Amino acid sequence: MTQNGTGKNQIEEAIEIAAEAHQGQYRKGTDTPYITHPYAVGLILMEAGCPEAVIIAGILHDTVEDTDLTLEFIRERFGAAIANIVDGCSENKALRWRARKTERIEALRSASPEVCVVTCADKLHNLRTIISEYDLIGDAVWDRFHGGVEDQAWYYRSVLGAIADRDAALQKSGVYAKLSTQERRANTESDVQDITPQQTPIEVINPQLFEEFQQAVAYLFEGAVE
Q1: Which phi and psi angles does 179 have, rounded to 5°?
Q2: Catalytic annotation on 139?
Q3: CB–CB of 117/207 below 8 Å?
Q4: Is the distance from CB of 100 to CB of 151 less than 8 angstroms?
């Protein structure tokens, strides 16, 4: 793991910075310290085998959006790559709820694989938490969230769809990059479904995290109004 001048590795430093930045914040409608969420996101990314930079960005993903920490600070302390991921995961809180959610959903359609992976881990942990609370208190859990189950179903399904579209585009790009000029020309003239199994697309968005996110959305919002 990368170390800084103090001898700490950067993941440890990110944990300390996030803990200080989120001090006094709590998960919506609960007395659970907010820092448990970015910690869990980092752990999910680590367990999925993600690179160190992605794990660090996961731990810091809400700091710019929800605390006084600036993107410039993250860039100076952790570098441009991590700052760019955090930036890609941050919403514009100056916008109303539907507008800012729509903006981020659309941004995911052209986001980097790293931003998509951190988003998967972020939303997966949110959904796991909601599922746990739902099992305890039922539909009352939706009173904590904007628009109740209908708006939340729209949001999570839309995020899932945007990431699926982005993954498909990146995989298609990966397939064509691996083909020879002759093969690429032949496939341009035919349907993309003609690509053979041997020409497997590169994995650009962690399939484990995407599948777990997909399963959580299906479980929680099955039958919910779109």
Answers
A1: -80, 150
A2: no
A3: no
A4: no
At 40-60, the pLDDT tens digits run 999 999 999 999 999 999 999
Among the listed residues 12, 52, 66, 151, the single catalytic one is 66
Catalytic residue among 65, 91, 133, 183: 65
In contact, 37 and 69? CB cutoff 8 Å: no
What pTM was estimated for this model as a whole? 0.84
Greater model confidence, 7 or 179: 7
Domain ranges in the chain are 1-90, 94-226
Secondary structure (DSSP) of 185-203? HHHHTS-GGG--TTSPPP-
> In the annotation, is 212 catalytic?
no
Which residue, 55, 49, 62, is CA-closest to 19? Answer: 62
**CA-to-CA distance for 73 and 210, rounded, in angstroms?**
30
Query: Among 125, 119, 127, 42, which residue's Cα sits nearest to residue 85?
Result: 119
The CATH class for the domain spanning 1-90 reads: mainly alpha
Q: Are 120 and 163 in contact (CB under 8 A)?
A: yes
Q: What is the pLDDT of residue 192?
A: 37
Give the separation between CA 73 and CA 4, rounded to whole angstroms.
15
